Structure formats: structure tokens, C-alpha cells
Amino acid sequence: MRYSEGADLDTSGVQDRRGGGGLGGGRGLAVGGGGLGLVGVVVLVLFQLLGGGGDGGGAALGQLGSLGQGQTADNGQLEQQCRTGADANESVDCAVVADIESIQDYWTGVLGDRYQPTDTVFFNGSVQTSCGGATSGSGPFYCPADQLVYIDLSFFDQLQSQFGAEGGLFVNAYVIAHEYGHHVQNLLGTNQQVTPGETGPASGTVRLELQADCYAGAWANHAETVPDESGRPLIAEITHDDIDAALDAAARIGDDFIQQNLGGGTVDQDAFTHGSSEQRQRWFTTGYETGDPAQCDTFATDDLG
After folding, report:
1. Does residue 190 belong to any structural domain of this protein?
2. Looking at residues 254-260, what average pLDDT do you find?
3. pLDDT-derived band at 42, boundaries 50, 70, 90
4. Which residues fall in a coiled-coil region (predicted)?
5. Domain annotation covers residue 56
6. For residue 64, is it within any domain?
7. Does residue 28 sit within a domain?
8. Domain that residue 80 falls in
């Protein structure tokens, strides 16, 4: 994956709450991410707390961007170091900044005024949200109550070290695009179709996660052509190897893979919250091959794969 060298980056879509820590830096081309398989568990808990997300998220809009006690957001260093696409090609932090901008430009184009841009919060260790406290171990997640995406960027390393994924910049982008898929679901009220706490291979919880994977694939299909404010795309190239790496990650964050390899060794479909490895690969591929979010209606089919 390569970013357009001369493109301007906009860091306004990030709240950097890491508190004086430097950027991750480095080329980071081997960086992965660890908890998409865990992320849906967190999202499920959030939906349970909010009664399904829809009305709860709307009622909490006044809390948008709120900081927990002792937390501050300081984008100063991010703004200095993440100025162009060339910086995104050299730094994982800057690459994520570019991903966020591209993903939100895409959804603005698709949904028009129905899309409300939101921030991604960078944090270290733990963070306070309108959905409660969370730690790095939770993995990236979206909180409907404040409509923010949260991520400790060390998660990308965890995806490689704990889950054995190939990793790379595009896998990181897939993780971010998946979380913004949950934001889209919240804006459209899709999460209201889900019974809180429901699990199983055809549950609403699984359908939400598979749809978010499909939305990520739809963005990826258009990523090289989505224009920024200057009219130029931020992303110059996504290769077949990038797509293969994303599919590898999708396979390693399926419920069956996690239960068998990181859990007790037994696959229990009744406990599924995300879908199997095969399902996650299938729905990302559906989004990527069609480029059409309308093909991502996992709630309208009896065949989830």
C-alpha cells in the first residue's frame, strides 16, 4: 500500500490522547493489529449498555469529543510530523491519519448529508469514553454514545504477535475501515436490528460485524480514487498482496480461529459474535469485489457463508 506523496494530510479527524508520547514512527510496513476478533465483543458490550446504540447514541451527542478525567487531546506533534502522503509512507501514525481521511471522504460521497464525520482517538494503555473505561486489551472499538472510534496503535503489533497475521499498512487500514463501518451502522440505525447479547452464527451481532467487514471492503475498492478536498486521492496503490494480507487477517479474527487457537481449543458456534474466518473473508471480499455498500446487507440474507 502506498500513499500519494504530495497529498496533504488533515489531522483534524484524530484526537491524540497519548499524552506527550512520541509518534510510533518508522516505516511500519510489517506492523499489524490484534483485536478485531476481540473488537466485536467490546462493541457488543457497548450496544448492551446503550440499549442497541440508535437512540442512545443520539441522546449522547452532546458528549461528542468529551475527555475523561485527567485526559487531554494534543495534536501538536501529530500535525508537525503528518503533513503529506510521503509522511504516511514513512510512519504508521501518519498512515492511519490518511486512512481516516480517505474512509470518511468515501462515506461522505456515498451518504451525503447523512454521513456525520467523527474522530478517532489515539490512546495509550487505557481511556475513558462515554461507554465507560477501556484498555488496550479491548482492541479498537467504536462507542455509539460519543460516536468516536478508539484505538491504541500498539494493537497493530498485537495482531501480528498474538494472532500471527501478516500485518502491514493495508491491514491497519482494514481495521480502521471496519470501525468506521460501525459508525455508519450507528448513523443509519442498523444496530437497532440487533438484540443485545444475542450470539450464534446467524445472530444480529454477527451480522453487524460481517457488514462492517463488507463496508471496509467497499471502501478498499474505491480507495485509490476517493478524492480529498484538493480533488486528489490520498491512496496511490493497493496491491493484490495487500488484499491477501487483509484476508489473512480476516481469517485470524474469525470466531472459530480465535476459539480454537487462542481459547480453549473447542469451537462453539453458539458463542459466535463475529462470524467464522470464512464468513469474514467472504464479506470483506463481497464489499471489495462489488464496491457497492448496498451489497453488504447481511440482515437481508439467510446465507451468511
Report:
1. yes
2. 92
3. very low
4. none
5. no
6. no
7. no
8. 39-44+74-295
